[in-house]
Design goal:
Length: 255
């Protein structure tokens, strides 16, 4: 299916690897030019070179921290009029809810809620004027199925979910959509780090722990980031214009 977005421009946040990069790749394959960002300059530049070479679209790399006002200013300076915005950032740490300080709560809300809200605020009126906008927030399956040691993440992402639900209804009439993509387990560096620390905690090997986690998914496997990227590209498509304010869960049937 031709997604009808060739020639559009997208900002994809936190995109040097993992789910953000997979979204960038799927959009580039559809002919979308990109501004991609992550904090590590060498990594984001390497990703931009790789994606541009593979799909023949211009890809601008910005070394920036999306959770800071300065980082967001750098992104918006590179791409003031994006048609598509994919919000993403690293996730907050795991831990016991009793141990989290007020500072950690503020950081989680800043990183996984306010950063996305600020980019939406900066870009949405241009999308409305041009009568096309697609905003996708990468959140987490934990929004639907809270995970015991992820309360920082779940709470901050639920805040963003509530914001998106309200704003999506205010901008829908202008062909601007806002949807959330909720990853279950996808095999990225972050996921592999989680498998390794659980394996250590349980005194088993990495492969044994990975097999356990696969068995917990009805599909009997974890997700391929490319599957996530393609779902993101569909949400950004011309054809997805009637789908807004939704939470799309990709978790192999776990919830
Ligand atoms: P990942 O493989 O570790 O990749 C994270 C990417 O984000 C990297 O490119 C990293 O580059 C960039 N990044 C991190 N913090 C950033 C910041 N402050 N500003 C700009 N870029 C930043 O992680 P992932 O698995 O793709 O996860 C992406 C998001 O999905 C996270 O919020 C995670 O919690 C959530 N999630 C993932 C899964 C899963 O199974 N993978 C499940 C549920 C939720 P730099 O470090 O160079 O900045």
């Amino acid at each position: 299916m031709d997604l009808g977005i060739a020639g559009r421009h997208a900002i994809v946040c936190a995109a040097s690897k993992g789910l953000g990069k997979a979204c960038a790749v799927s959009l580039a394959r559809e002919g979308v030019s990109l501004t991609i960002l992550a904090r590590t300059k060498a990594d984001i530049e390497a990703a931009a070179t790789e994606i541009s070479a593979a799909y023949g679209v211009p890809v601008t790399a910005v070394a920036a921290d999306v959770t800071t006002p300065e980082g967001r200013a750098a992104i918006l300076a590179a791409s003031p009029q994006a048609d598509i915005l994919v919000n993403n950032a690293g996730g907050p740490p795991r831990g016991d809810f009793r141990s989290f300080t007020a500072e950690q709560w503020m950081a989680a809300v800043n990183d996984n809620m306010i950063a996305a809200i600020e980019l939406v605020r900066a870009l949405v009126d241009g999308m409305i004027e041009r009568r096309f906008g697609r905003i996708v927030n990468i959140t987490s399956a934990a929004v639907r199925r809270p995970i015991a040691d992820l309360s920082l993440s779940t709470a901050a992402r639920l805040g963003l979910t509530g914001y998106a639900a309200g704003v999506a209804r205010q901008v829908a009439q202008h062909n601007v959509t806002i949807n959330n993509l909720l990853p279950g387990p996808f095999e990225t560096d972050r996921f592999r780090g989680g498998v390794a620390s659980r394996a250590t905690a349980s005194g088993i090997t990495y492969d044994e722990q990975l097999a356990r986690q696969r068995r917990a998914v009805p599909a009997q496997r974890v997700g391929d980031p490319a599957e996530f990227g393609d779902a993101c590209a569909y949400l950004c498509s011309r054809q997805a214009g009637f789908m807004t304010g939704q939470n799309l869960l990709l978790d192999g049937g776990q919830f």
